Amino acid sequence: MKTYAVIVAGGQGTRMGTAIPKQFLPLGGRPVLYYTIKAFVDAVPGITVVLVLPEEQISYNNMVLQHFEEIPELIIVAGGASRYESVRNGLDIVEEEDAIVFVHDGVRPFVSAALIRNCMDQAREKGSAIPCVTVTDSMRFCGEDGHKAIDRDKLRIIQTPQTFLAGPLLKAFAQEYRESFTDEASVMEQSGGEVFLIAGDKYNIKITTPEDLCIGEAILNMTAAK
Amino acid sequence: MKTYAVIVAGGQGTRMGTAIPKQFLPLGGRPVLYYTIKAFVDAVPGITVVLVLPEEQISYNNMVLQHFEEIPELIIVAGGASRYESVRNGLDIVEEEDAIVFVHDGVRPFVSAALIRNCMDQAREKGSAIPCVTVTDSMRFCGEDGHKAIDRDKLRIIQTPQTFLAGPLLKAFAQEYRESFTDEASVMEQSGGEVFLIAGDKYNIKITTPEDLCIGEAILNMTAAK
Fold this sequence. Notes:
The structure is a homodimer.
Chain A: E1 3-8, E2 26-27, E3 30-31, H1 32-43, E4 48-53, H2 61-65, E5 74-78, H3 83-91, E6 100-105, H4 113-126, E7 128-134, E8 138-143, E9 146-150, E10 155-158, E11 162-165, H5 166-172, H6 184-190, E12 197-199, H7 210-225
Parallel strand pairs in A: 1-4, 1-6, 4-5, 7-12
Antiparallel strand pairs in A: 2-3, 6-11, 7-10, 7-11, 8-9
Helix pairs in contact in A: 1-4
C-alpha cells in the first residue's frame, strides 16, 4: 500500500526573531526539518515525502538534504496562502485512493516511529487517526460573558500526523475553504467524514520560539539516550 | 503589606517511577522545591513561605533548606487528602485580611520574578490574579455524543501562582468542599468572588514526569543564561 507524508512547513520565523525560517533552524547541528523528514522515512520504508514549502524557501531545501546519508524520495511543492491551501497543494501529488496519507507539521521533529506506525494502522482500519494528548493544567473558556472553568478531562490537545485513507481525504479537500478549517480533522468532518482519535505523545511538540529550540535539544538528547 | 506564598507539594512521585517524591528530585543538582521557594523569596522581600507537604515528607525538608545560603522564613504545614484541603491547611497560617496570598504548585520551579510581581500588583488592585497562557495547538472537546473541534482562541491554560487578597480567599476556603474545586479560582468563584486573569509564562511548567526533568534542565540553563 502506498504511503505519503505531506509535511507542511509554512513558518516565516518572525516569532523566532531570526532571518532563517524556524523549520530550518539548527537543532543538535541539523535543521529541524531534517528530523521531521527522517522520522517518517525511518518509520515507514518506501514512503513518499511531499514537502510543502513557501515558494521563496524552496531553495533552502539543500540545507536539509545534505544531512541525509541516503537521499529520501522527496517531492517539493509550493505552499499556498493558508494551511488548508498548502495541504491541498501537497495532496495534488497523491493519486491512489487506497493510499495512507500523513499530514504533519514540519516543526514537530520529535514524532516517534511508534506514533507514526500506530496512526498508519488505525487509518487503515478506521479511515483516520488524529493523535491527541490529555490536558494536565486547569483550563478556562473565555466566552462573550466572561471566562469560566472548563473540565480539562473533557479536552484533548490535538497533534499531527493527522492520518487518513487518501480517498475520503482528497474528497474533503475538494471542498471550498472555510474559516473553521483549522486542521485536517475539521476539513474531514465538514465533508461528512468521521475522525478517530488516537493517543499522541506529550513530547511531540511544535518548535515555534527560540526557547522551544532549547527544550528541543533536551528532547533530542533524551530520545538519543533511549 | 504582609505577603504569603502557600506552596503546595502533594506529589508522591508515582508517575516518576522514583521513590523520591517529584518535588524533591534534583534539577541542576538541587531539589525542584528549592527553585520554587527561592523564586518567591527573591521576588518579594519579607515574604512568608508556607510549605504544605504530605505528613510523611516533612522530614525531607532539610534536603531543600541546606541549599539556601540564607535560610528563608518558612512554615511547614501538613497537607490534607485533597488539594483543597492542603491549601486550606496552609491558609490557617494567614491572619491579616489585607495580606496578599500566592497559592503555587511546588512542582512549578520556573515561575519568574516578573510574573510573581505582576500577580502581586494585580491582586492588590483587583483582588485576584490568575496567570494563564494561550493555546497553540488545535483542541477538541469530548462530550457524551463524541468529540468536536473547539475554538482554541477561546481557551486559556491556567497556571499558578493564583494570587488573592487574603480576606475573600479565607472566606472562600471556609466553604464546604465540592468536586468542582479544581483550583483556587474555582473555589473563589463558588463563594461569589470574581477572578481576574493575567498573562502567565509558557515556561512556567509543571514537572511531573522524568522527561519533564530533562526539559527542566534546559529551561534552567536558558534562565541562567539570561
